[in-house]
Amino acid sequence: MIDREAYCSGGLLNDCKQNYSYPIGFAEDIWSREEAERLLPLVEERLQPAVKEKHNLSVYQRRAERLGVSLLDVRQAHVGTDRSKELILRLRGELEARGVRFMLEREVADIFDEQGRAGVVMAGGETLRCRKVLAAPGRKGFAFLQQVMERMGIAYIDNVVDIGIRVETRLENYPIVTDYYDPKFLFPEKVRTFCTNSGHARVVLEQYHGFSLVNGHAFSEQRTGNNLANFALLKTIGLKNPVRSGQQMAVFLARLANEIGGGKPIMQRVGDFRMGRRSNSETFNDDLFSFPPTCPVSAGDLGLVVPAKIMRHLWGALKKLDTIVPGVLHPSTIMYYPEIKMYANKPAFLDPFFRVTDNVYMAGDGAGTSRGITGAWASGIRVAEGIGAAGLAH
After folding, report:
1. Quick one: which of 1, 125, 160, 345 has the most CB atoms within 10 Å?
2. Could you state, in chain order, the average pLDDT of each consecutive group of 10 residues for the chain (394 residues)?
3. Domains of the chain and any CATH numbers
């Protein structure tokens, strides 16, 4: 198992939210409910989640339905950024006990499948040969997988991307999180809430090649809360010809935001946005705007960087959400941009086990088979079943 990071983890290393209800976390074009529900118990058996209770769900669902909004009932668990490494080390220990060898902080430069033998080329030039390769580099490996597919002649489609904002507010302005840890709202115009954090919650930077995005984390319940909540509001964009790459569109928008933000993402208070004026450092004062941003990026004007159609749909969803959960659009609420999820690679799979050549498989968020931890784990099990079946056939 090779990973360029110190922990081979993907989303587990973040605050490690897990969803155990289809279709959350699954690409519905390649997953049926029956297949997902067959594998989710196996995922749960390994991750051993403490599933969170929900309260007063029907109250919020009734409010949502009156506005044409859906609130999904999802089985969820949350580990917390402060405890995620414990889970990773336990899982790693279980694998090592089964004879798995780990090569951490080592980068793969290429993958090949030639003359019946597959393998990888390391960044230093070393070649490792094997019978089968599973490439599962996660969202950050989105572009890497595209390069590999182009070099290997593997057909793929990349025409969908999620673009949105991260909203941060006081806990009292988004009280639903005391009843439902990560509420999944589905709005018209393909807008949804995603990755809600509360308790001790913070907005963080994620570094990519040449730009930064925002994301959200939360510590476990063992840590003292900071009385803040944050969540992503994402719009799914489906591109059509002649646009080739949703990933390239996402990179362009992210770099534009970072350029205007002086090398950082941009944040704007709801009160300033409503007044049609940019936020600046003076806006973040101790009057109405009484909590400091947990991610000190550049104060500015989202109207200059978010495409108008996307911003219109995001703002429309926020207004509906403020009716369902009154208070979320308090003037002090912060909107951070960009939050972009790049997991829309769609390789041309040769079988249901995510095989792309005779001996190479691709799975996880970077390969478009999942949208989160549990979907990625289920994808890995499907690959394992395919490799096992291939071994038996030979």
Report:
1. 345
2. 86 88 93 97 96 95 98 95 91 95 95 92 95 92 91 91 95 96 96 95 91 94 90 91 78 95 96 92 70 92 96 98 97 96 85 96 94 95 94 62
3. 17-51+107-151+346-393 (3.50.50.60), 160-341 (no CATH)
